[in-house]
Write a structure and sequence with these properties.
The complex is a heterodimer of chains A (301) and B (528).
Chain A lengths: L13 H21 L8 H28 L5 H40 L50 H24 L3 H33 L7 H34 L8 H26 L1
Chain B lengths: L1 H8 L12 H5 L3 H29 L10 H36 L7 H20 L27 H28 L12 H32 L13 H18 L2 H15 L6 H14 L15 H13 L1 H15 L8 H24 L1 H7 L3 H31 L5 H27 L14 H30 L36
Helix pairs in contact in B: 3-4, 3-5, 3-17, 4-5, 4-6, 4-15, 5-6, 6-7, 7-8, 7-9, 7-10, 9-12, 9-13, 9-15, 10-12, 12-13, 13-15, 13-16, 15-16, 16-17
The chains are: A mainly alpha (301), B mainly alpha (528).
C-alpha cells in the first residue's frame, strides 16, 4: 500500500483569532455578569465583539477545512483523525452532563433526605426542623426571602393529563428527529440528494419545534408555576439540566442547519465522504440520548 | 487524487520555520508549539514560585510580618492554581507535543491548527486569572480547591473572572488531550503496535483520557458556582436544599484524577531515563502499562479520601479508604520495576538520571505519606495540617517538577542540538534536591505536631522548623534561576550533540539528527 502523505497545514491565523475571541468572550461575560444592574457597563460590548470575532473565525476556519477536503488534501488517515476527534469531543460532553446529573442524583438521594432527617446524616434536620424531604421538593429548608417557592413542578402529571404535558411532546419530537436524521443519512448513502435535503430539513424543523416547546415550558414555569431558578434545589437542577441540554439542542440544530445549507447551496457531500454531516448527526444522536436521560430522571422518576 | 496531493505538498517539507513573531503566533508545528508550552510553563513556574516565596517569607517567623492576611490568602490560592494549571500541566503538554509525534513516527500532531489554539488560550486564561489581583476585592482567596461557600457566598467579585478563566483553561486541556489521543491512536508508524509504544506515549494516552473525562466535570462545578453566585440557584447551599459537600464531591471527582494527570507523564519520563542510564532494557514493560491503566481507573473511585472529615456515612469512609490503599499496589509495581531496572545496570549519573533517581525516592516518600493520609481514623488527625502540605508537595515538586526537569535535561540536546553544561546541571540538581527536602521534610513534623495549613501566622512552638523550611524554600527558589540560566545557555550554544545523544538511548526520537529537523517523519518509518 502506498502511503498518502498526512496533510499538515501551513501556518494559520485562525487559532490566534479564536483564542483572542475567547479572551474577549470571557472578559465580556464575566464583566457583564458582575455588572448586572449597572446601566453604564461596557462589558456587554466586549462580549458582543467576542461573539463576532469567534463566529467569523469559526466560519472561515471551517470554510478552509472544507476547501482543503474538496481539493483532496485530506488523506483517509486525516479523515480518521476527524472521526476520532469528534468521538472524544462527544465523550467530553458526556462528562460535562455527568457533573449535572451527578448533582441531581446526589441531592435526590443524599442531601435532601438528610436535610429531612433521614438516615445516617439525618442529624442535619435539626438545622431546619419541620423540613420534610420529598421529590420534587417544593419547599426549601430555609423559608427565607431568598427563595420564591413554586406552586407546581414539571413532573409526570398522570395519564389523565399526559397529552397536555409538554415534555412528552418534546420527547416525541426529539426522538423522531433522531430517526429523520438517520433517514437523511441513508438517503445520502444511496446518493439521493433530494431525499437527503428533505429529511435533513425535517430534522432541523423538529429541532426548532423542540426549542419552541421548551421556551413555552419555561414561560409556563416562570409565569404560572412560580418555578424559577430561585425556587430551591428542584428549580436549580431542573433549569440547569434542561437549560444546558436546550443549549446543546440549539448547537446541534445549528450544526445540522449548516449541513443543510452546505448541501442545498453548494451541493456538498457525496455518498462516500461526508464526515461533516456525520459528525453533526452523531452530535444530534448524543443530544437525543441525553434527553432520554433527562426525561427519565428529571421528569418521570 | 494522489496527483493533487503531490502538487499541493511537494514544497511543504524540508523547509524551516517562518521568521519573526508570527512564527509563534500562527505555527502549526508540534515542535514550535511544544516549545511555546514549555516556556509558558516556565514563566508560570517562576510567577507561582514568586508567590510561594511571599508565603514562605511571611511564615519565616510567627506573627504578621510582611503581608495582610487577605493578601496571603490570595497568594496561597493563586500559587496553587498557577502551579497546577499553569506550570505542571502545560509543561507535560509541551513535552507531549515535542515528543509524542517523534516517538510514534508521526509527521506532526493529528490536528495541528487546533493544537495551536490549545496553547494560545492559556496566556489569555492566565492573564484573566492574574488580572483579578488588581480588581476590587482582590484575587480569589479561597484556596486552589475553591470550596463552596467560601468561593460562592463569601467570594470576592473577581470569582466570576476566575470561573470563566477555568472554563477556557478546561477547553484548552480538552482540545490538547483530544489531539494527543488522536495522534497516538491514528498516527503511529506501521509496525508500532500499542504494546511497542514508548512508555511516555502510553503515559500520555492514559493522561489524555483522564483529562477528557474530568476537565468537563470541573467546568460543570464552576458553572454551578456561577449559577449559585449570580442567578439564585442553591446547588451548594443547604438552605435551599443543596449541599456545600456536593461541591467537594464534584470538585474531587475532578481533583483526584487531576493529581494523577500531574504524575502519570512523570512515570513515563522516569521509565525512559532510568532505562537509558542503566544501559538495560526497562524491567516489566507490560506491567508498567497495566499499572498506569489501573492507577487511572482507580483514580475515579477514591475522590472522597480528600473529604474524610466532612461527615461522610461510615460505609463511604471505609470504601474510600480501601480503594485508596489499593492504589499503592500498581504504584509499588512501578517503583519496584524502576529499582529492578537499575539493579546490576551499568549506571552513570548524568543530571537527568540524578533527577530521575531523586524522583523515584522522593515520590515514594510522598506516596507513603499518602498511605498514612488514606487511613481514615488517622486522617482525622492529619487533615488540613502541614502534613498534608508536605505530602502533596513531595509528590508534586520532587515528583512532577523533578521529572519535568529530568526530561528537559534528557531531551534538550535533541531540541537544541547542544549539550547542556553537565557541571552546572549537577549543581542545579544538588541545590534543588537539598532545597526541596529542607523545605518540605520539616513540614511533616510541624503538621503532625498540629500546625494547620492555609494560615499566615502560627503558634510559637512551630517557629524553628518554619524558619528552616523557609530557608530551604529560598534556596530552592533561587536555584531555579540557575536552571533558567542553564537552559538559555544550552539554547545559545554548547558542545554539539550526536543524533543518539546518550549511549543507551532507545526510541525513534534518537534516530533523527540533533537538533531535530523542523519536520520529522513526513514519511513514516518502519518499526520492527
Amino acid at each position: 500500500m502506498s502511503y498518502q502523505k498526512y496533510y499538515v497545514p501551513e501556518q494559520s491565523k485562525f487559532p490566534i483569532y479564536a483564542a483572542t475571541a475567547l479572551f474577549l468572550l470571557v472578559m465580556g461575560a464575566a464583566g457583564t455578569i458582575n455588572d448586572l444592574g449597572k446601566p453604564d457597563s461596557i462589558s456587554v460590548y466586549i462580549l458582543y465583539s467576542g461573539f463576532a470575532v469567534f463566529a467569523a473565525t469559526l466560519y472561515f476556519w471551517f470554510r478552509t477545512v472544507i476547501r482543503e477536503h474538496i481539493a483532496g488534501l485530506d488523506s483517509v488517515q486525516l479523515q480518521k483523525s476527524f472521526v476520532f476527534g469528534m468521538g472524544w469531543f462527544i465523550f467530553s460532553e458526556v462528562m460535562f452532563f455527568a457533573a449535572f446529573f451527578g448533582a441531581l442524583f446526589y441531592v435526590r438521594n443524599f442531601s435532601v433526605p438528610w436535610l429531612g432527617g433521614d438516615g445516617e446524616k439525618g442529624l442535619a434536620n435539626m438545622l431546619w426542623e419541620g423540613f420534610e424531604a420529598s421529590w420534587p421538593v417544593m419547599s426549601t429548608p430555609d423559608a427565607g426571602s431568598a427563595y420564591v417557592l413554586a406552586d407546581k413542578n414539571m413532573s409526570w402529571p398522570g395519564w389523565g393529563n399526559a397529552l397536555k404535558w409538554l415534555p412528552l411532546w418534546n420527547t416525541i419530537v426529539l426522538l423522531s428527529s433522531s430517526v429523520t436524521v438517520h433517514f437523511a443519512h441513508l438517503a445520502l448513502k444511496n446518493d439521493n440528494k433530494k431525499s437527503f435535503n428533505t429529511w435533513l430539513g425535517v430534522t432541523v424543523t423538529l429541532a426548532l419545534i423542540f426549542v419552541g416547546l421548551q421556551a413555552a415550558e419555561y414561560y409556563e414555569a416562570y409565569a404560572h408555576y412560580g418555578l424559577t431558578l430561585n425556587s430551591g434545589i428542584y428549580g436549580s437542577t431542573f433549569f440547569m439540566l434542561t437549560g444546558f441540554h436546550g443549549f446543546h439542542v440549539m448547537m446541534g440544530g445549528f450544526m445540522l442547519a449548516v449541513m443543510l445549507a452546505r448541501s442545498v447551496l453548494y451541493n456538498h457531500f457525496d455518498p462516500h465522504s461526508h464526515f461533516g454531516f456525520e459528525a453533526a448527526s452523531w452530535y444530534w444522536h448524543f443530544v437525543d440520548v441525553v434527553w432520554v436521560m433527562l426525561f427519565l430522571f428529571v421528569y418521570i422518576l | 487524487m494522489s496527483a493533487v496531493i503531490e502538487s499541493h505538498n511537494h514544497d511543504d517539507h524540508h523547509h524551516g520555520p517562518a521568521k519573526g513573531l508570527t512564527r509563534w503566533l500562527y505555527t502549526t508545528n508540534h515542535k514550535d508549539i511544544g516549545t511555546l508550552y514549555l516556556w509558558f510553563s516556565f514563566a508560570m513556574f517562576l510567577i507561582g514560585g514568586a508567590m510561594a516565596m511571599v508565603i514562605r517569607a511571611e511564615l519565616f517567623q510567627p506573627g504578621m510580618q510582611i503581608v495582610e492576611p487577605e493578601f496571603y490568602n490570595q497568594m496561597l490560592t493563586l500559587h496553587g492554581l498557577i502551579m497546577v494549571f499553569g506550570a505542571v500541566m502545560p509543561a507535560f503538554v509541551g513535552l507531549a507535543n515535542w515528543l509524542v509525534p517523534m516517538m510514534v513516527g508521526a509527521p506532526d500532531m493529528a490536528l495541528p491548527r487546533m493544537n495551536n489554539l490549545s496553547f494560545w488560550i492559556l496566556p489569555f486564561a492566565f492573564f484573566v486569572l492574574l488580572s483579578s489581583l488588581f480588581m476590587e476585592g482582590g484575587a480569589p482567596n479561597f484556596g486552589w480547591t475553591f470550596y463552596a461557600p467560601l468561593s460562592t457566598t463569601y467570594a470576592p467579585p473577581s470569582v466570576t473572572f476566575f470561573i470563566f478563566s477555568v472554563h477556557i483553561m478546561g477547553a484548552s486541556s480538552i482540545m490538547g488531550s483530544i489531539n494527543v489521543i488522536v495522534t497516538i491512536m491514528n498516527m503511529r508508524a506501521p509496525g508500532m503496535t500499542l504494546m511497542k509504544m514508548p512508555l511516555f506515549v502510553w503515559s500520555w494516552l492514559i493522561t489524555a483520557y483522564l483529562l477528557i473525562a474530568v476537565m468537563p466535570v470541573l467546568a460543570g462545578a464552576v458553572t454551578m458556582m456561577l449559577m449559585d453566585i449570580h442567578f439564585g440557584t442553591s446547588f451548594f447551599n443547604a438552605a435551599g436544599g443543596g449541599d456545600p459537600v456536593l461541591f467537594q464531591h464534584i470538585f474531587w471527582f475532578f481533583g483526584h484524577p487531576e493529581v494523577y494527570i500531574m504524575i502519570l507523564p512523570a512515570f513515563g519520563i522516569a521509565s525512559h531515563i532510568i532505562e537509558t542510564f542503566s544501559r538495560k532494557q526497562l524491567f516489566g514493560y507490560a506491567s508498567m502499562v497495566w499499572a498506569m491503566a489501573s492507577i487511572a481507573i482507580l483514580s475515579f473511585v477514591v475522590w472522597a479520601h480528600h473529604m474524610f472529615t466532612v461527615g461522610l456515612p461510615l460505609a463511604a469512609e471505609l470504601f474510600f479508604m480501601w480503594a485508596t490503599m489499593l492504589i499503592a499496589v500498581p504504584t509499588g509495581v512501578k517503583v519496584f520495576n524502576w529499582v529492578t531496572t537499575m539493579f546490576k545496570g551499568s549506571i552513570t549519573y548524568e543530571t537527568p538520571m540524578l533527577f530521575a533517581i531523586a524522583f523515584v525516592v522522593l515520590f515514594t516518600i510522598g506516596g507513603f505519606s499518602g498511605l498514612m493520609l488514606a487511613i481514615t481514623p488517622a486522617d482525622f488527625q492529619y487533615h488540613d495540617t502541614y502534613f498534608v502540605v508536605a505530602h502533596f508537595h513531595y509528590v508534586l515538586v520532587p515528583g512532577s517538577i523533578f521529572s519535568i526537569m529530568a526530561a528537559v535535561y534528557y531531551w534538550i540536546p535533541k531540541w537544541t542540538g547542544n549539550m547542556y553544561d553537565e557541571r552546572l546541571g549537577k549543581l542545579h540538581f544538588w541545590l534543588s534536591f537539598i532545597g526541596v527536602n529542607v523545605t518540605f521534610f520539616p513540614q511533616h513534623w510541624i503538621g503532625l505536631a498540629g500546625m494547620p495549613r492555609r494560615i499566615p501566622d502560627y503558634a510559637l512552638q512551630f517557629a524553628d522548623w518554619n524558619m528552616i523550611s523557609s530557608v530551604g524554600a529560598f534556596l530552592f527558589g533561587a536555584s531555579q534561576i540557575l536552571f533558567l540560566f542553564i537552559v538559555v545557555k544550552t539554547v545559545m550554544g554548547g558542545k554539539k550533540a550526536t543524533p543518539e545523544v546518550w549511549e543507551g538511548s532507545r526510541g525513534l526520537e534518537w534516530t533523527v539528527e540533533s537538533p531535530a529537523p523542523y519536520h520529522t517523519f513526513t514519511t513514516p518509518p518502519k518499526v520492527n
